[in-house]
Design goal:
single chain; 166 residues; mainly alpha; Four Helix Bundle (Hemerythrin (Met), subunit A); two-stranded antiparallel sheet; 7 helices
Length: 166
């Protein structure tokens, strides 16, 4: 049995972003309980040379919307990375979920060999759809969702593997 490109992408992104929203809700509740300003989480990072929490959310969103639209042969929408509050970040995740819901299996299935043009490190590159999804988009997406989770967990938010996996 083969797996469809749609099945390997949109439902996976959707599930993980939905889980991320639930994690963000838990972080809000934790912050309210402990009287922690949510702005602390927005700009926090695990290491000085690491991107902050807000960038982890933005980049995870970018990889999900980029993969879905590129594989569908559509232009990737450009969204300003102007989120400054926790609610802004939740809205960004919801906006990404809305975009994913607008992409159909018929648009993505069959994109395994479709040339996907990208910029990487300032260079133009082209990857076949399956390689792009499995070797670039998905690993980057998971990395940034995981870092967002880790930043919150590091700060005491009571989340675990079950929250991450949903």
């Amino acid at each position: 049995m083969t797996i469809s490109m749609y099945g390997a992408s949109v439902p996976v992104f959707t599930r993980m972003l939905t889980n991320l929203l639930a994690i963000l809700d838990k972080a809000e509740a934790y912050a309210a309980e402990r009287k922690i300003d949510l702005a602390f989480f927005v700009d926090d990072r695990l290491a000085p040379d690491m991107l902050p929490f807000k960038k982890q959310i933005q980049i995870a969103s970018d990889h999900a919307k980029g993969a879905a639209t590129r594989l569908a042969g559509k232009p990737v929408p450009s969204w300003a990375d102007d989120e400054v509050t926790f609610e802004d970040l939740k809205a960004r995740v919801r906006k990404t979920l809305d975009l994913l819901a607008s992409v159909t299996p018929a648009e993505i299935d069959g994109s395994e060999a479709r040339d996907i043009p990208l910029k990487s490190g300032g260079k133009d590159i082209v990857q076949p759809g399956q390689s792009y999804l499995l070797e670039r988009a998905m690993p980057n997406f998971y990395f940034h969702v995981t870092m967002a989770y880790a930043i919150l967990r590091h700060n005491g938010v009571p989340i675990g593997k079950g929250d991450y996996l949903g």
